[in-house]
Write a structure and sequence with these properties.
This protein has 670 residues and is an alpha+beta fold. The protein has 16 helices and 32 strands. Strand 30 and strand 31 form a beta hairpin.
């Protein structure tokens, strides 16, 4: 297989747009499968898990491949629901082209926009597929206008459906009637977009001498740099336009040689582009899957340069001693076929190796390659094992889940002693809890977690003295410290400054003061939350020649800091999130009022096609713990939302007082 004949595409977009059906149609037309897989019947190659068959939509990224017109096309099928962006976003790292699938009857939806923008920001070329063109009450001309308005005038059809949408006609080299527009106008627009990238071709075009072959030859560059975003039309379930879609992938999208080059940053922060022509192996893991039936972990690697063989010694920054990949696989959904080797540009899977999403594998000099930015998951629930003794099983399962999905995160809060699961939304974490019960035979109880407040100060307290003295019959304890406690700038962290001149406190005990202060900061002062952004100056003290010891100055440091903190205008800080709500226009007023009642600040709003709108706001995290059910109630289940961490901000005094009072009460859970 030659690198120039490989195409790597990621099928992205909103749920129910038909991404999986499009891939299934490609598999059938290419002869990989004997019959067309159906999502509704649960017979697809790609949605092969029990949960996906039951839900009738993708929950995980799947990979397959077809051979077409002498080219090898790797297809990465991604989930379309926003809750599962932890699967779809890393998948972009395996592709050179993002194929944004839009359902003709639903139009541009929330995840259409998000995945389009993420693909462009990552530097991928983009192709738009308008699917389900045979559905009733579809206005394709209007939809193309909306695509141009939303994503740019460089979104242009490179083929058009014939009347009745029974077949597809090429814009360049085609003839006949079409459902809308006309071939000559569409051809002019596409050719002019392509000619922009080649001055000589533009001159020939203006002179009427540009050949169609030369225009097609330059199309790849136009698509690669975003001068042209091709629009193609399909009805995947009827296999209309699917062959033409594969033609477009071969002739209009870049090979790994022509596509955006990844940038490798080595351990000395030197940057270099990864050239597919280089003999040195460099690859990146973009997907991890744990097969619950065989208990085998598969790591999917996009080979960026060099070759990978089964006896090849590969390294990562975490595993510099190296490892052997063993068998290299070509994956087709749940099926795995042995490969002799993987070449530059190809996608392969490795089994039973300790790799993680984002890892760079190499045979010589390695480094890091950036993934597309993955949102910080802000939806959280605290979990406990229903049955005593299941904690280890749950921890092992959660570890596997977090390997598969970087938006599924688990932490043990040392302050609240809660195990907290973070996800994108309720549906996201509930899917994993369901998987936990189904495959691992264990269940968890959940409750809202404590909000991760922080404590800090706005002022300063000077000359705070604290003496720790203890006499217990034997050796005593003595330590006296005098400190200044000063507010540091937001984000400035903790600073300890030793300002003692002379021997008021022995040099060996000064780190003990610092250690005691940091211990108190971890435990908090106001309400038991960690302290941030303070500066402490150690200015004086006293050492006893016999009774002074490390523990005495730790205790003195803690006491002095606690006293000074309470005298320096202490405040609580709360996490604030960026909230982005997509809902029907008719619900905007109620949503705005609800957000205002949650101490939210509006940031803006945007109208979408189909009487939908996006409402953006910044809201304290504490106020949106029940937002899933509230949004569903307001919108009748038609709304969706995403949260991402924004910043920490000061808690209003009346709210702070209640939080402090509640912190003094015994901990209770329903």
């Amino acid at each position: 297989m030659k690198t120039e004949n490989i195409r790597n595409i990621a099928l992205v977009g909103h749920g129910n747009a038909g991404k999986t059906s499009l891939a299934e149609a490609c598999l059938h037309i290419a002869g990989v499968t004997k019959r067309m897989g159906s999502v509704t019947d649960g017979t697809t190659v790609l949605d092969y898990t029990d949960e996906e068959k039951e839900k009738q939509h993708s929950l995980e990224t799947s990979v397959c491949a077809v051979e077409h017109d002498g080219h090898h096309i790797n297809m990465i099928d991604t989930p379309g629901l926003p809750d599962f962006c932890g699967q779809s976003i890393p998948a972009l790292a395996g592709a050179d082209t993002a194929v944004v699938v839009v359902a003709a009857d639903s139009g541009i939806e929330v995840n259409t926009r998000r995945m389009f923008q993420r693909a462009r920001d990552f530097g991928l070329s983009v192709v738009i597929v308008v699917n389900k063109i045979d559905h009733a009450n579809v206005n394709l001309e209007e939809l193309v206008g909306q695509l141009k308005e939303t994503f740019g005038d460089n979104c242009l059809p490179v083929n058009l459906p014939t009347p009745g949408c029974k077949s597809i006609e090429r814009v360049i080299g085609g003839s006949g009637d079409t459902e809308f527009s006309d071939l000559e106008t569409a051809k002019t627009e596409a050719v002019e977009a392509i000619c922009v990238v080649d001055d000589e071709l533009m001159e020939k075009y203006l002179g009427g001498e540009a050949s169609e072959d030369k225009v097609i030859e330059c199309a790849v560059e136009a698509v690669s740099i975003g001068e042209l975003i091709p629009i193609v039309f399909t009805t995947a379930t009827g296999e209309v336009g699917v062959k033409e879609f594969m033609d477009a992938m071969v002739h209009w999208t870049p090979s790994p040689i022509d596509a955006k080059k990844r940038v490798l940053v080595d351990e000395d922060d030197n940057e270099s582009e990864v050239d597919p022509a280089n003999d040195k192996l460099v690859g990146q893991v973009f997907h991890v899957s744990n097969d619950v039936k065989s208990n085998i972990k598969y790591s999917f690697v996009r080979i960026l340069s060099g070759r990978m063989a089964s006896d090849h010694q590969i390294h990562t920054l975490a595993e510099k001693k190296g490892m052997r990949p063993g068998t290299i696989y070509r994956v087709m959904g749940a099926e795995h076929k042995d490969l002799a080797e993987g070449v530059a540009g190809d996608i392969v899977a490795l089994a039973k190796v300790d790799l993680h999403i984002g890892d760079v594998v190499f045979d010589d000099n390695g480094g890091k390659i950036a993934l597309p930015p993955i949102p910080t998951p802000m939806y959280a629930v605290a979990v406990e094992a229903k049955a005593r003794g299941d904690e280890d099983k749950i921890a092992a399962a959660f570890k596997k889940f977090s390997e598969e999905d970087p938006c599924f995160q688990v932490e043990r809060n040392p302050t609240t002693h809660e195990t907290v699961v973070h996800g994108v939304g309720d549906a996201h974490v509930r899917m994993f809890f369901g998987r936990l019960a189904k495959y691992y035979k264990v269940e968890v109880e959940t409750h809202p977690p404590k909000i991760p407040y922080r404590e800090t100060i706005l002022g300063k307290a000077e000359n705070i003295e604290y003496t720790h003295k203890k006499q217990s019959g034997g050796a005593g304890q003595f330590g006296r410290v005098i400190i200044n406690v000063i507010a540091n700038e937001r984000g400035g962290g903790y600073e300890f400054v030793d300002k003692i001149f002379g021997g008021a406190i022995d040099q060996s005990f000064r780190p003990s003061v610092d250690k005691g202060i940091q211990q108190q900061m971890t435990e908090g002062v106001l309400a038991g939350y960690p302290v941030v952004d303070v500066k402490v100056e150690l200015i004086d003290g006293k050492t006893h020649p016999v009774d002074s010891k490390d523990i005495a100055f730790q205790i003195a440091g803690r006491g002095a800091f606690k006293d000074g903190f309470l005298k320096a205008k202490p405040v609580l800080l709360e996490p604030v999130v960026n909230l982005e709500v997509t809902a029907p226009v008719d619900n905007l007023g109620d949503l705005q009022g609800d957000i205002a009642s949650r101490r939210g600040q509006p940031v803006g709003q945007e109208m979408l096609p189909g009487q939908m709108a996006v409402l953006k706001a910044r809201v304290p995290l504490a106020e949106v713990s029940d937002y899933h059910s509230r949004l569903s109630s307001i919108t009748g289940g038609q709304g969706s939302y995403m949260m991402e961490f924004s910043h920490y901000d000061q808690v209003p005094s009346n709210v702070q007082q209640k939080i402090v009072e509640d912190s003094k009460k015994p901990e209770e859970h329903d």
